[in-house]
Amino acid sequence: xxxxxxxxxxxxxxxxxxxxxxxxxxxxxxxxxxxxxxxxxxxxxxxxxxxxxxxxxxxxxxxxxxxxxxxxxxxxxxxxxxxxxxxxxxxxxxxxxxxxxxxxxxxxxxxxxxxxxxxxxxxxxxxxxxxxxxxxxxxxxxxxxxxxxxxxxxxxxxxxxxxxxxxxxxxxxxxxxxxxxxxxxxxxxxxxxxxxxxxxxxxxxxxxxxxxxxxxxxxxxxxxxxxxxxxxxxxxxxxxxxxxxxxxxxxxxxxx
Length: 256
Description:
Layout (H helix, E strand, L loop, with lengths): L15 H4 L8 E8 L2 E8 L16 E8 L5 E10 L10 E15 L2 E16 L2 E16 L3 E12 L5 H7 L8 E16 L3 E13 L5 H4 L4 E11 L20
């Protein structure tokens, strides 16, 4: 939902723990440098995901860096790397090194807009029990046409190592607590604005998702899992940047 290419899909990607930043962090210091089309950023922060005590303070023991490149209004690319010290409260001795890369394309046209993204992310998990890698690959695209209509798709392949409970592993005869499985999710959806003004819009939408998985998971998830949902979306109107007198707008900015 934070990308134009995912604006009409209310579900988070299966790979959001591999491709996105930490969910919430109380304590972040970021600095950056911009030159023409290039932007370099670095951060130090608290890598632990918070519990119900949201304002507990922790050390700024994690760090990250990102290099982004936006050559024109339609294209934006980035690579990033982060070290997260003990992000999961349930596994306090496991650290994560996360690398991501993405390419985004956005193009407005008469009475519509087309936005697409290709995203890769990897978690290298280091724990006392050993180290392993998890990869996630995502392609998503949304086309807005004739003002009020939206056609969207999302295709994912992601490694998941937290699918099974202890009794599930016992049923399948799996001894490893963090067995990894390659899961696929393939979504197509449509939405339409029922009411739209400059300040607010109301839409109804629906999407259908087919999943792929190893056959060993059939006793838990079935042979051909499918999901369908109907949703309503309320959204404020688009913001516009208006230059003040004497200010010249940059002519090489990515279309977000």
